[in-house]
Amino acid sequence: MNAPSVLVIGGGVAGLAAGCYARMSGLRVHLLEHNRELGGVCTAWSREPYLVDGCLRWLIGGAPGGMFRRVYEELGIVPELTMHTIETFARIEDPIDGWSVAYTRDLQQLRAQLSALGPADGDAVARLCDAAAHSSELHMPIDAPELASWRERLASLWQMRGMASTMLHFRGTLGSWLEQHVRSPQLRAGLGALGDARMPAAFLPMVLGALAAGQLQRPEGGTLALRNALVHRFRELGGQATTEATVEQILVAHGRAIGVQLADGTTLHADAVVSAASAPETLTRLLGGRPLDLAWTERLERWPIFDAIALVSVGVARQWPELDAQTIVRLRAPLQVGDVPLTWLPLEQFVGPPYAPPGHAVVQSILRSRWGYWSELGPRYGAAKQALTDTVITALDGRLPGLAAAVRMTDVATPLTFWRHARSWQGAYEGFLPTAENFGAHVPKVVPGIANLWLAGQWVEPGGGIPPALLSGRQAVQLLCAERGCAFTPDEDVAALR
Ligand SMILES: Cc1cc2nc3c(=O)[nH]c(=O)nc-3n(C[C@H](O)[C@H](O)[C@H](O)COP(=O)(O)OP(=O)(O)OC[C@H]3O[C@@H](n4cnc5c(N)ncnc54)[C@H](O)[C@@H]3O)c2cc1C
Q: What is the mean pLDDT of the chain?
């Protein structure tokens, strides 16, 4: 008898992970991807002689003992890729008020810097650094919580008991925590520059804790290396992928997903469907406007999504050796990204292979933007891209003198680019924004009322990111196997599968 067949919609990292786990569990897999290439937003592109890295700044939890280590091992990411531990996560610079802070792995040093920025905020700084030091106690089970026994759930809660008071203290938003606990405007700005004010405050100690524990890493070769490792693993496991295949509809008969219809009219049938496309795409478009249950309706209506971004990259015939981390600089005059004025400019330098020839660099800025602005430009789109490039080059030159004269390549990815190439819904490149409400909330990977359909991807893991997206693919297949009565076998002997 043939093994059950699975259609996976979307070849981002979540779809690739779902495909890998389905193959490891002996299922037949056909992955359908809208774009010409696999990877989704986890991608990089060539602009000779430069490479624009469109994604990865840091990969969390992959060092020995890290909470995602096992998933990376199962998917052939570690130890296959060489990982470099990030020593400095970001530098925040305010040349107007004359201060700066470097978020380094050394928590003592960081504590001293933060205390100097806010001498009257000793309590808040101590609370933050202590919480960061203990955040390694945070434990995230990698198996689908639906399948966990009560004993396993209790064990998991017990493991995190040391974090209870921290989670309680940091339970609100980043913005409200800063307002309530931090008096110094400099310290507020220095901490606030790390994330959106609507995000959970707990994000701060978690990231700083992961940094301190050496759990923020970057693979050698960057995004491209990571994407290629996953694609390689998928193919080596015998997965089949068709690119430039846009799914228009999920076919449903008698309350069960039975296949998909593609934009070119092709119909494909399968025993199960996993959608790793965005939740709005899957639930509102591909299911043809079927009524949703209350929980999904509320999520789609109430949960904010990530602000769209414009990614501006310039290839330059020089380097800035002192620029060793992502740097966020306060501007003297706001920078207009379409109709969004920004007062802080993030920038990062990429040097060496595979990014730039010797002596050259790619300097990149990820800028908050607005979907509505770019989607309504029509024929003015090209001019708006050019205007943004010019403005950003001028702003970058303010921090990196000589940059403007050394520019050899420019590249702008707007929210429309993210939609065209990865179908990022309204340019929300990481799905639902994590908020105090949805942070840690478990989003079921099913659509009530439709059997045989599982959801994976960053939209079922608020906050997005590579590891949660990979994990969602793993859990979707685990649930599928449990439902269909087949064995989920991700870890039999990873080497033997090759
Ligand atoms: C600039 C940037 C920086 C980032 N930095 C980091 C970082 O440092 N660390 C980190 O962990 N994460 C980072 N992320 C986030 C991370 O890349 C994403 O969360 C993750 O890659 C999402 O994977 P996904 O598979 O869930 O979704 P996507 O990558 O969005 O994949 C969805 C795929 O489905 C396809 N698709 C959608 N609809 C259809 C359809 N109807 N038919 C066929 N195919 C369809 C799309 O084309 C796409 O390929 C960053 C992202 C960006 C853009």
A: 94
